[in-house]
Amino acid sequence: MEKNELDRLFEQLRGRFDLEEPKVGHTDRFLEKLNTKKGVTTLRRPKNRWQRPVAIAASFVILLTTSILFFNSQTSLEEQVAEISPEASKSENYFASIIDEQIKQLEKETTPETQRIIEDTMVQMEKLELDYNNLEKDLIKGGNNKLILSAMITNFQTRIDLLQDVLKKIETIKTLKNYDNANTTF
């Protein structure tokens, strides 16, 4: 057929087309009729039988996870240490406040001349903090409490001594800088 013949055919059929949607299940009924006339039986499409069990399982997992997170909130390391030794918790707060004050003082003293020594000190402080965290874990695991508590106090004292030494060195650097500036007056 040529294009003109197709155009003429559609012009003749205009207004006669069925534009309605077929009813639900139309395809299944059509295939069933077609296959029964040919003697072929159709296999019905399997319905999504897995959706319901999966939805139930997913709901169960969500409920279980939520309940575990809500009801099984673990106490922090500091709270566990406080339960084992309230004195250790009090001394930790005391030493931590002293260390924080000295770190703030150290940060105020940052100059180009002191920057390197302050950075090195902060690296050492981080290492000592990691050692302290390990001591806390050992205490919770049930090690020799007196020995571990003594090591924890020594760790704090080491940090405080380190910060005091660095602050003294910074004062020395500032004094030398002021002395050099006074001698180089023009």
What attributes does this structure have?
mainly alpha, 186 residues, 2 domains, elongated, 76% helix, single chain, 7 helices
SSE arrangement:
Layout: H1 3-13, H2 26-38, H3 51-71, H4 77-84, H5 86-108, H6 115-141, H7 145-183
If you had to describe this structure to a student in words, what would you say it looks like?
This protein starts with a helix and ends with a helix. The chain has helices spanning 3-13, 26-38, 51-71, 77-84, 86-108, 115-141, 145-183. The chain has 2 domains: 23-73; 77-183. It has 7 helices and no strands. With 186 residues, the protein is mainly alpha-helical. Helix 4 (77-84) crosses helix 6 and helix 5 packs parallel to helix 7 (145-183). The mean pLDDT is 79.
Radius of gyration, CA atoms, in whole angstroms? 41 Å
By DSSP, the count of extended strands is: 0
Distance between the termini: 109 Å
Weakly predicted, low-confidence segments: none
Mean pLDDT across all amino acids: 79
Q: Strand content of the residues, in percent?
A: under 5%
Q: What is the overall number of helices?
A: 7
Q: State the share of residues found in helices, binned by percent.
A: over 70%
The helix/strand series, from N terminus to C terminus, equals: HHHHHHH
Structural class: mainly alpha
Sheet with most strands: none
Total of domains: 2
